[in-house]
Design a protein that fits this description.
The protein is of the alpha/beta class. It is built from ten helices and eleven strands. The model has no long low-confidence stretch (mean pLDDT about 95). The protein binds zinc ion (2 copies).
Length: about 290
């Protein structure tokens, strides 16, 4: 089995892991070994694009367009602390691990902003990606999956937060820019929920993914967060299945002992939705393989 959403450096500040941008001997092996103990034998690494300094010109300073100065300052400080990785060094580390025979794939977690996705795809074009996953982490300058911006829910309200999040997620799904939608309902991460699941938003994302040929990941990350639920929710995942949108399996781990974390839970969720296959990627070409 596989884990197609892994990071090699924890978010900052952290006393875990190697110094940002460094890939010491044994670091990638530690992920491979931890995953193998969970029965996971194929690892797709997906470092955050926004953390790589090379992404600066393509992504631009999106937080500076944010009208709320508190949200803008939050993201400005966050990026200053987190942009300490190199895309080139990351690609070299993964390709080196592959050359050593480790069962790893070169992926990337691509931040979606409608204004800059074309420039981002141009930046990424020369690299030998096996697959790209796409994420909505920001609504304008609001970092929706960062607990330090929880105050914004009071301002915006849950309904508007969901409307704005899913509008972006639908655009990402329609764009066809990436191979897989990451944590597709991450807006629930800190437990902000509508009284009923937003089926009209789910329908829009599912239809866009089906039309563009984009897959969706089934991720255990939400089980480690207040959401206490796999991404996507059982109902949302069932709608993807009905539309024949394929899946990958994911932990979104940021350190070796999280590799393959929650694997049994994501496989169970996929089976409960009716899936019998997941995708395997090589050089951005997908092949269905059995969910065994
Ligand atoms: Zn993410
Ligand atoms: Zn991630």
């Amino acid at each position: 089995m596989s884990d197609y959403h892994l990071h090699l450096h924890p978010h900052q500040p952290s006393d875990q892991g190697p110094p940002p941008g460094e890939y010491p001997p044994g670091h990638i092996e530690a992920y491979v070994e931890a995953a193998a103990r969970r029965g996971v034998h194929e690892l797709g690494f997906t470092e955050h694009l926004f953390r790589c300094f090379e992404s600066g010109p393509a992504l631009g300073d999106w937080w500076e367009r944010e009208p709320n100065p508190r949200l803008a300052a939050n993201t400005r400080e966050f990026i200053a602390a987190e942009r300490n990785l190199s895309l080139d060094a990351y690609v070299t580390a993964i390709e080196g691990a592959k050359a050593q025979g480790l069962p790893v794939l070169l992926g990337l977690e691509v931040d979606y902003f409608p204004e800059t996705i074309a420039a981002v795809m141009e930046l990424l074009d020369p690299y030998p990606w096996d697959f790209l996953i796409g994420s909505v982490h920001w609504i304008g300058g609001w970092a929706i999956d960062n607990p330090s911006t929880g105050f914004e829910w009071e301002e915006r309200g849950i309904e508007r937060g969901y409307d704005e999040y899913f509008a972006l997620e639908t655009q990402l799904a329609a764009s066809g820019a990436v191979d897989v939608l990451a944590h597709v309902d991450v807006i629930k991460k800190y437990g902000h929920r509508l009284s009923e699941e937003p089926l009209h938003h789910y329908r829009a994302v599912v239809a866009a993914a089906a039309a563009s040929g984009t897959a969706v990941e089934v991720s255990s990350q939400g089980l480690r967060k207040p959401a206490a639920e796999v991404y996507p929710s059982p109902m949302f995942l069932g709608m993807f299945r009905e539309a024949s949108v394929p899946i990958t399996l994911a932990s979104d781990g940021h350190q070796p002992d999280e590799a393959g974390w929650g694997h049994d839970a994501v496989v169970s969720a996929a089976r409960a939705a009716g899936y019998v296959e997941r995708l395997q990627f090589r050089k951005r070409t997908a092949n269905p393989v059995p969910l065994t």
